[in-house]
Each structure stands twice: as structure tokens, then as C-alpha cells.
Amino acid sequence: MKLVRVIDTKRCIGCRACVAACMVENFYNPGDPWNFVVEYEQGEFPNVRRVFVPMNCMHCENPPCQKACDYVGAHAIYKNEFGVVLIDYDKCIGCRYCIAVCPYGAPQYVEKLEPLFPNESFTPYERIPEENRHEVHRFRPNIVTKCTFCWHRIEKAIKENKEHLIGVHPEYTPACDLVCPVDARFFGDIENPDSKVAKIVGEKKAAQLKKEFGTRPQVYYILEGGDY
Amino acid sequence: MWLLAFVLLLFSIGYSQEFKSLEDIAKLIREGKIKVGKDYTMSFGGRFHNIHTKVIGMDCSACHLNKYPKDFLYIRRYKVPVRGAPGVVDRSMCISCHKGGKVATQWYTTR
Amino acid sequence: MGITRRSFLKGLGAFSALASLGGLSEIARASKRVKPFREGDVRYFYSTCKMCVNFCGIKVKLQNGVIRAIYPDERRADFYNIGNCPKGVSGLFNTYNPYRLKKPLKRTNPKKGPNEDPKWVEISWEEAFEIVARKLKKIREEDPRKLVWHHGHGKYLLDDEWMKAFTSAFGTPNMVHRTTTCEAAKHVSDELTWGGHEPLPDLEYCNYLINMGGNYFEADQWARWLDHTTIFAKERGMKLVSVEPRLSNLAAKADEWVPIRPGKDVLFLLAMANVLIEKGYVDREFLLNYTNASFLVGEDGKFLRNDRGEPLVWDVKTDSPRPYVEGVKPALEGSFKIGGKTYRTVFQVLKDHVKDITPESVAEECGVPAEQIRRIAVEFGENARIGSTIVLDGKRLRYRPVAIYTFRGLTAKEYGSQNCRSALIVMQLVGALDAVGGFLLHKPGKKSYMEPSKCEYPPQRVDLKKSVFLPHAHHDVAQQVMFTLLDPKKYGLEYEPEMQIFFATNRPFSTSDAKKQFEALKKTFNVVIDICMTETAWYADIVFPDRTYLEAFGYYSGRWTPHARYHTLHYPIVNPYRIPYQNLEIMFELSKRAGFYDEFLEKINEKFKFKNPKFVKGRDYTARDAFEILWRNKAKEPLKKGMKRGFKGRLVSVEERYLSGAEKVFKGPGKPKIHLYCEELVQTADRVIQTMRKHKRVREVFKDWYELGDSEMEDFIRMKLSPLPRKEHAYPTPHRRAKDFPLHLITFKRMYRNQSGYCNVNPILNHVAHNSDHNEVWINPKTAKEHGIKEGDTVIVESRVGKVKGIAKLTHGIRPDTVGISYHYGHWSGDYPEWARKGTWVNQIIEYHPDLVSGMNSFNDTKVRIYKAEG
Question: C766: which chain B residues are within 8 Å (Cβ-Cβ)?
């Protein structure tokens, strides 16, 4: 199984629902987004377009972040058998070499944990205790975090023997892909030729970003233009 | 091109008496014979910065861009509200040394 | 005792005592690896989002009693939304918001102002009810009209029948909703033309869609249905042309962006009509059978009528004027001499009217090349496939897969109604109304909408709705209330309002000349029912905290779509601040104490047309009881069942979709006709002018609104109430008068706010984009260069009514002669933290010149100049 995401920027209307969903789903620590929409303009008046490109961890097949982490000796970053790149917060030493080498800017350094409402106490949501949070949501200061492909949702599918429903059933789909109001995001197993992602990658000529780095990203883009 | 520039830079700061290739320097760094800061850290003055600024002698502006292309796809491209991470650095700068594994540690593969 | 609300609320939050800052990380460290992941009790609630007015289906995840996340309701996808927007997704933080109002508050500083500390004191619910009820009782005995009730979002939380019942039981005509700050002119032009409102493009089949300044990829009433439907239609091959001065998110995804000069849309559309007629893209069958195109118009602009008052057509069979009944064959074009007078058919009048309005003649004014206007008109005409049919579900139907959509683009201006009318005329020419792929009507044919106005004077209502001032304002005129309050006599009002209740609205903040609006709040006793200390609440005397949509019952009929109809429901899921009453219960309590509870219940039955069950006088009702009655009447099922799904809906048949509207109401002889020509406006103009001649005050108001001299007044009124849109409708007052202000100012809505509600205190919405916590001043780089302005500079934008500071955003996505500022940032309520107050409050520099037809607020007509701020 190789899990991938396909983002159709031709469909994307730049609403940032995926960003908001990611923040809520993953206990956003202010300043450390896992998902972000890069927006830019092309052309000059009146021949001008705006392009929206949602960005998150590419879960590379050759993840430079993992290499850097190994080199440093922390061995906190690993890629699991489903193709998901994860960070073990227990091993992370906060050196930020992974941030330095990631060509996509995905890893985020958690300097300190802050309440969502600055200078206010934590909301009931933020006070959901550690034991009720998946390991990927157990943050502490001086670690690096990033998009996990909503591993807590995928893992649930695997534990419940529902692997075939990953990216299909709402419970087993990453939150960002779930909320998109124009169906511009897809998630699933690219090794399954019948999966939506496999078909779209072929039909719509999806590309990977920054191929020159040899990272072989597992996030594919149907692009309107830009850097790829 | 960049390689050449680095070599010239090295030369100009007169880092070493006897001429060493970048590969040799990289090897010495990896073997710990050239000390470039104690900890693995991204902070200013930390190991990472020292390698690039002190040893190789790169200018800040070589990595930290004031201006970057409009279509630069990079999550931390916007300074606000992202924090706790360095400013925008175009990784295509790193590619020349960190791809291929000859000079610097290989982060990026050639294929 | 001057204690500010913030200082004591800090200690009061139901949870603030439980957690101290930094507690999370301590827990985290201590429990590391000790505790395996157990999610605990997880439940999902299917409900309805009320973060805006789309009423999307949501699925709320509750983990151990705490809202953990909000997802789209997959069951709602067949009816409306397939996803959610960032507001919907982050809606839980409008509920878990430490800046919520938690206890009733009483003002102790009688002085009101943006910088006046209200010196709130917390009071009990009992005391708050008593104070307000006493005041209500007194007013009700003296003159109930002195109470003005406002709601904006309140309507969508509950449905406004409750409030209609409350105010009519009380005895005041003054219940004011917000329609003129959104799309009233669009509603009114639809109503004058075809007797209904809220039409939709038939996107499933449409092949060519022109969007006139709508931005439904961000904020719009139908945004979450229009968005994906449009994207899918585009992939099917539909061409999307967006005509607007700013490259909105929608224009950004369009096939063609036509950056038209603000206010000139009517010229663009009339030129399109010119081309369509010239090139023969005219659906003659449609015009004859469905519209009043064949009616005979005299020199006075009125229809030729028989003794019974029926309008006449020229019957080519008998060569005589006849009412259009069975057996009559009307002429579509031509000029006829009848009784020594000349009459032309409506179509002839239109043809003559647009004859000289060629693309070439308007290109410069529109800022759009003539060839482009001409090409778009021809493409529109070609794609309409006039004469073609399609068979769906065994039924042969008219097929005209073209439509023009608009929202604030054509609407939010002094000539909003006439601008919208011009789009309706273009669509009628090609027969797109209620055809497959065209422009689907919604409940067409309501007679009272299509008649001349009674032009009431003196006005009954403080918002002047349907009065001589705003004769066809079928919808409430939100922004006028405060101006009337400042000088009621000026408008001939026979009473002076004393008390205002605001339910979930931040009205004065959101409309024109906003600073002036707040002055009016100083004159009345104000009660606010809301969830946050909005700017309006900052001027209140008594504040009631309300529950949010995740804490309260609420209803609204869902946004209809061509294929579905449904009712939506939301209900309490959490109540973190333990707020004891919700809005409706506050209304119950107030009416009880002020002595009109039974009348209120009776009126509820009447307004909702409740049959079974009904409210029974004298009985007590909680919100739950009330919604049991409502849901059983609306959805014909127990409330409990509704609470399992959050909605009840049905899909509609092809027959209902295409054959129950125009086909049924307008088609053929002997039936009312769609108004290609709005004769009712000519008659209204007569009445306005008569009243104006009698009452000097009316004239004075118009003079003030439109900056006119006495001599030009009557012609001007006739021009405004013209039966066909005219070139003059491209020149709102500032275009004519603000000569020293070279730039146009447009305002717009962004995704991250809902009007000027509470999204500013939602941390997620402030972080979802690099610039979502503030708004910017959109300036074309060319203009910026001329003014020495650079990206990020602080600039001053100045109009005739004020100036504001803003941050310059240089973008090619706006015309060089235009600046754009979104209109819902720059909050200043003393209760909001600094991070929630960012941006520019542009409404304070917007000039006020209401659309005389509909009362629509003039958001997009102001002219400004810009310069770099000193220092």
C-alpha cells in the first residue's frame, strides 16, 4: 500500500477549508501550520490570474528530512509501510535539520505551546487530555511537527481492518481531503489501480512538485502553473 | 558554477594554508577533524550555520532571500503567522552540493 | 463602581479556573508513554452550520463532551454542500470563545461612544428581564411603534416568523432585517420582473455563464452549492466569464475575466442587448408567450389598456388592439396608430431604446474593448441555442444553456435594481428564464411584487420601506433606520423611536457612512442579544448573552437548489458557559413580563401557519417545546427524528424543476406576463412625483440623497424609476458629484468573515491565510507607482465623507482606476483583543445614496483618492 494525495489546483478556489480543517483536526499550535495555501498572481492587468496551491508534507519516498535526522543521529523521522512519514516526538531533539533540508517547508518547529486565544486560558477543546489524544497530537516544546496524512485516522482504519476504506469513508480520510467544498483533494492507495487517486493521477496528468530534488513526493498536483 | 564560486570564496578567506578540495573539507567535517560548532542546531552560530558561513564562507544572502519568485511553492514562504522557523530559503541553492553525495552530505537524490 | 466587563469575566469563565497557562505541556510531559491512546466517548451529531447563511450540513464530533471537530455531513451532499468552508470547519471556536458574553450586563456610564467605557455591571437574568420588560411595557402603552427590532443573522438562526410574531404582537411595524446590505436590489428587480426572488443558474446543464461581480467562491448565500456545481460544470465544458473590477477568487478561476469599471455594468449589458437584437439572437416565441414584449406602450410610457384595465396587444389577425387572450396573435414589433396616438410594442420600445447603445459607444466608459463586449454577446447568443429543446425524463423542454448570475456586483449600488434588470432583459431576449441550462425562477408570479407601489406617506416604518422614499423596497432597509432616527421629522415620521433591540446583528458597523450610524444609537435605549460584545453591543444599555448554533435550537428552510428542497435544523450539542436561555426563550420571557405573551403565541401560530400542533395560550414553552411544534409542522416528523439528521429534504422531479414555474404561471394567452418592461415603475414614478409636489419634505430628502437641484428633480425621479434600464443608471451620485476624487472604491466580502459578526475573534480564521486576520487596500501597481506607494505601505483612502488608513496590497487583480477594500474588518469594540481588531473599517467612508427603487445600500459607488500616510 502506498498512500498518496492528489490536489487539483485547477479546482481549488483558495478557500482554505483544508487549512482550517487541518488545524482543528491536529490541535494547531499557533504559528505552526501543517497545511498552508500558497497564493500568487500570474500576468499583468488585465491578463492576470490568481493561483492557489495547498501545500503540506509530501511524504516523500526519498525523504531528505529523514536523511538529515539520521545523519544527526536522532533517528526520529521514519517512513512506515503505508508510505507515511512520521516524526517520533520522543526521539526528536529539536535540531531542525529536517526543516533546513525540506524543499517544501513542511516541518514546523514548536518553540512553545500556546493557547489558541492569545493570553487566554485553554478552551475545553485544547484541554482534551493527553490520554485522549493520539500520539501524533502529543506535542511538547522543542520538537518538530508536520502533516501526518492524518495518521490517527488511517491507523484507525488499519486497526479496524478497513484498509480498503482509506480515502473512501469519511472516518478514514484525512480531514483536509474530507472538507474540500469543491472536491479538489483526493486520498488513497496509488498501488490499487481502481482507486480514485490512481485514476486521477493518470487521467489528469498529475505532477509532483520540485522533482529535481529527487524526493519522489507522494502528493500529486494537477497544476495550473507554477514551480514544479 | 556554484562550486567554483565556493572554491573561490574559500580561497579568498584563506581558510587553509594548503589547498584542499571541497570534497576533502567535507570529509574532514564529517570525520570531526574540523570543528564547526558543538551541537546539531539550526540556530545562528550553531553547527549548521557554521558549516555554511564560517567553513564554506557563504554569504547570508546566498540562502536567505529577500525576494523570491511569485510561484515559489513553499509552506513557510509567508512570514506571518509562521514562526519558529528560518525565513525563506530557496532549496535549489542547496541542491548543487547536497545532491550526488560528493561534496556535502547527500540529502537529495539524483534521479 | 466602574468595573469593566473584561476584568471580571476573566475570572468568570466556566473553565478558566480549571486550567492555567502552560498546563498542557506539563500534563504532556508527565504522562508521556504512560497512557496509551484512548479516544473515550465519541459521538457524532448531524446538524446545520450557521456560521453564515448557506446552512450547510455538518457532522459534529463530540469527544467526552467536548467538540473535537466539525466535518461535512455526507448525507447533505445530495442536497447542498459536499464540503465545508473554513468558517464552518472552525465554528467550534465561535462557541469555545473566551470573549463570549456570559452574563447579562447593564451599562452604568450613560455616555455612549467608541472610546466611552460603558462601565458594565453584571446583573442577574431576573433583573435584566425586569428592566427590559418594564421599558417594553411603558412603550407598548404609549406608542408601540417606538420600538425598533433589528436582526441580521438572527433571522437565519431561528427563521424570522418568530420575530414577526413578537413585533406584531407588541404592536410595532418596525422589525428590520438586513437585506439591503446584501442583495435587496437583486430581489426587487427579480420581483418587479417575474414576481419572485432567489433564482439560480441551472448549472447542471448551463454552457455559458456570465458572472456579474458575484463572488461565490468566497461569500454568497448559495456559495457552498454554487462552488462545486460551477467547478464541475466547467470541467464539463461550461465557459465562465466573470465581469467585475476585481479579480475575485471566482474571477481567478474563470475562463475570462472582464475587468469592468465600477458602476458601468448596465452599459455593458445594454450593449449586449443591442448586439443580440442586431444579430438576431432573439427568442421571439419566448418573448411573445412568456413576457409582456407584445404589450402596446404609449408615448407616456404606459400600456394601452381597455375599460377593464387590461393591457392590449396588436392582434395581427384582426389588425386591432386586443387583450392577449386565446385566439389573439400579437405582433412582437412595430409601431401602431390607435385613436390618433402612436403605440409601440414593448419589444419595439426596447429595440429603439438600445439601438444606439452599441458596444463601441460604451466601450470607453466600461473600460472594456468593444470587440470583447461584442464577442461575449455573440457567444452568449450562440450558446443559447434559441429554438432548441432537450428531452429529460421523457419530457421535451426548452433548452437555453446560458445564464447571468450576480450578487453584490450588480446589486450593491445606487442603481442596483436597474443594473440587475438589465441582466434579466438580456436573459429574456434569448429565452433563458426557466429553460433547461438557463436561469431558474423560484416561486414566480407573486402579484403584489409586480404592481405599482402605494408610495405610502407619511412612512409607517422607520426604515421607510415601501414608502414614497423607497417605493419598491419589498425588503427591509437595514441602513436607513439610523439615518431616520437622527432626524425622524425630516422623513415625516409621526413618532420618535425610543428603544431598539438588536438580535444577532452588528448593523451599524456594516453599512454606509457607518460613524454617523452610531450617532443614532446614542438617542435610544438599546438592548442587544448576542454572543459577543460587538460594536453595536458596545452602545447597548442592556446586553443579553445568547447561545450559539452549537448550543441552541434553530431552524431555517434550506437553500433551494434546482434538484432539492429541504428544511434545516440545529439543536444544542454543548453549553460550555452554561447559558440558561437561548434567543427565543428570551423573547418568551420578555413578552410574558411585558404582558403580551398570549398575543405572541397567537401570532406565532398565525405567521408560521401552524396547524398541528399549535401553541396554546397561557402555556409555558421552552425552546425545545417550541421547536417540537415547528418541526412537526414543517418536516412532519417528531423533533427527535429531526435531531438525528439535522435536516429533512426531498429531491424534485424534472416536472417540478422545469414545468412548475414560468411554464405554468406565464406561458400563453390569458396569463400574467414576465415584465420585460416594468410599467409599474412608470406608475410609481407618477405617485412619487405627486407626493413630492404635495410634501416639501420628500423633495428635501431626495435632494439630500442625490444632491439635486429643484429643477431637475422630477426628471430625475422618472429616470430612476424608468421602465427600462438606461445609460444614466451608470452614473450614481458620486460619479457625478465627487469630481476631486479620481478613483472608484469597491467593497467585497472575504471567506474568513461573515458580515461583521464574530469571526474576527476566531483564532483559526485569523491564521488560515497569511493575511486573513486583516484586510488590505487593493491597488493596481500602475496606480501605486503614480502615487509613490509600495507594497505594505500605510495609505490613506479618503472619500467625501471621511478617511481611513489601510495597508497597500499591490495587485494586478484590480483596475488601475479602482481600489478595493473588503468591508468587514477593522473592529473596534472595546471588548475585542488587539489581534481581533486588525484591518480597515471601510464602511465609515462609504457614501450613502440608497437605490430609490429598492432601498439597497450603495456599497460600490463611492469615489476616493489615495495617498501615502505621513511618517
Answer: 81
